[in-house]
Amino acid sequence: MAFFRAIREDIKTVLQKDPAARNGFEVLLCYPGVWALIWHKPAHWCYNHHMKLLARIISQATRWFTGIEIHPGATIGRRCFIDHGMAVVIGETTEIGDDVTIYQGVTLGGTGKDTGKRHPTIGNRVIVSSGAKVLGPFKVGNDVKIGAGSVVLKEIPDGCTVVGIPGTIVKRSKPTNEDLNQVDLPDPIAVEMECLRRRVVMLENKLREREKGSQDEDL
Predict the structure, then answer these.
(1) What is the pLDDT of residue 137?
(2) CATH class for the region spanning 2-183
(3) Where are the chain's structural domains?
(4) SS3 sequence of 13-38
(5) Which UniProt keywords are present, listed alphabetically (predicted)?
(6) Averaged over 22-37, what is the pLDDT?
(7) Mapping DSSP to helix (H, G, I), strand (E, B) and coil, where does residue 170 land?
(8) Residue 26 needs a FRET pair 20 to 30 A away by CA distance; which of 61, 139, 214, 218 works?
(9) CB atoms within 10 A of CB 164
(10) DSSP code at position 169
């Protein structure tokens, strides 16, 4: 049966991606991200078969138990991994591809009160790190890595690494299955501040030279 096959696949994904997971039984009992994905499946089915109230009830109950809010209208691909999961919000028209990793505090949300498609489309093999916000009806390409705390407001091409507020592309690379190294991520704001600091030092040196030249002329 496809439902149970999908659950087994979700559990296997956790075992592959989380070194703290010891066995499938532990994952099934102790991982709220797995619970949220399991219950999203019947909620999504109900939503697509004109039982929207029942779908919302299932979704709301799942939120109470897991701290993860997934609208039943959201489309989630295979082998999605929601790690820790607390305060994750996934909006109604969100579309998530296969092999996506989502950490705690992530919002895949909309902007404003527009109807229709108003949430992001996430490609395959995307990593959305802790506290990141992806807001709006645009596409995040395949193999994209979004740094912790970033706010992404526009489309991101395939294979990019994005950090900062607003999200800035700091790296373009070939597709890879490697996890995002948060420690070595460049900080675009820090880079700009360093450029400004160097500029100020250069201007101060020029000003000193000019003042010294004026003093020599007076003598």
Answers:
(1) 94
(2) mainly beta
(3) 2-183, 187-219
(4) HHHHHCCCCCCHHHHHHHCHHHHHHH
(5) Acyltransferase, Amino-acid biosynthesis, Cysteine biosynthesis, Cytoplasm, Repeat, Transferase
(6) 95
(7) strand
(8) 61
(9) 21
(10) E
